[in-house]
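thread: overnight batch results

M.L. [08:02]
morning all. the overnight job finished for the chain we discussed friday. pasting input first so we're all looking at the same thing
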Amino acid sequence: MPEKQILEKGELINNTYETSFFIGKGAFGEVYRVKHKLMGLQAMKIFKENYVGKSNLEDVITEGKILIRLNHKNIVKVYEINTFNKNNREFYF
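M.L. [08:03]
and the structure it wrote out:
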């Protein structure tokens, strides 16, 4: 049986991002096309719970903070690191 995706089309995250559609998944998480209420279309990566559970969250957050400051054509631009709750579970994006 296939895994259920974390987000559904139209779902609102932190009253800021509206899910448009599922793009794909990899070892660390799932990627969605979302619409930010002020900045328009973006991609959002949500880390899988098992990845978060096995990782040092401080290292992941530090890497995200570094990526936010970087600007290069070959590096995906990171705008935000955050969490949200769904069904009494905490997710990181």
